[in-house]
Write a structure and sequence with these properties.
Helices cover 81% and strands 0% of the residues. The chain contains seven helices and no strands. Helix 1 packs across helix 3, helix 3 packs antiparallel against helix 6 and helix 5 runs parallel beside helix 7.
């Protein structure tokens, strides 16, 4: 009987711990959603104002890309603080160009340019970390491998998906080829920030992001088979 009561007490304690973890997690998610909502509203408001005065979304994309490339130089010189500034400014412009496009007109070339410059930027940042420290070369190569795999899978998917949905109006928030999921999203920016703040952790963080990128690549392949083969038969 004593042992039975001890087991009940243990289970109750474990349940309390689980509930605390669940509440803490839901709290973090709620805060993140609020931050995202405010940021989204800010960019939309700024994009509307800039669009009205004639600022073009593609111009902002190019400016952000140019600023982002400065991060490569800073990373090569191990000036991680300045590299982080360049990266954040690049991401700020990336959010702003989409907001301007939504407020004015989303174009096919604009969607192409935004995606292309993003991929080049991320690849350049990985290269910058390798230039700054030769010990990062192996992990950087693996990350580039995973990133390239995910990028190729997503872009190949986009070609077919856009062909199928060619009559669908382009929408930056829900384009016919955006799949979401892990890697190549906000989590990538979080990792880049952490790498600049803790450059000595580059190797393990790069390996983790590389693995996530490979998972993303295979998830795109699965999604492609489901959408282009299974759904096509229905």
């Amino acid at each position: 009987m004593k042992e039975y009561l001890q087991n009940l007490k243990k289970k109750a304690e474990e349940k309390q711990v689980f509930e605390k973890m669940k509440n803490a997690t839901s709290g973090v998610v709620s805060v993140c959603q609020k931050i995202y909502g405010k940021a989204y509203n800010f960019f939309n408001a700024a994009g509307t104002k800039l669009g009205k005065i004639g600022i073009k979304a593609n111009a902002v994309s190019w400016v952000g890309f140019g600023i982002g490339l400065f991060a490569v130089n800073f990373l090569a010189m191990e000036m991680y603080g300045w590299a982080l500034v360049a990266i954040l400014l690049n991401r700020f412009c990336d959010g702003l160009d989409g907001a301007i496009a939504r407020a004015t007109k989303v174009t096919t070339f604009g969607v192409f340019l935004d995606a292309t410059l993003d991929y080049i930027f991320y690849g350049a940042i990985i290269w910058g970390f390798a230039l700054g420290n030769a010990e990062n070369a192996g992990a950087a190569s693996f990350l580039m491998f995973g990133f390239s795999a995910a990028a190729c899978a997503m872009l190949a998917y986009s070609v077919v998906a856009y062909k199928i949905n060619s009559k669908q109006e382009l929408n930056l928030d829900n384009s016919p080829f955006y799949l979401g999921g892990i890697a190549q999203g906000s989590e990538t920016l979080v990792v880049l920030i952490l790498l600049c703040l803790m450059p000595k952790w580059f190797v393990p963080l790069a390996i983790i992001l590389g693995v996530l990128s490979l998972i993303k690549a295979f998830s795109v392949i699965v999604a492609a088979y489901y959408n282009f083969v299974i759904m096509a038969k229905k």
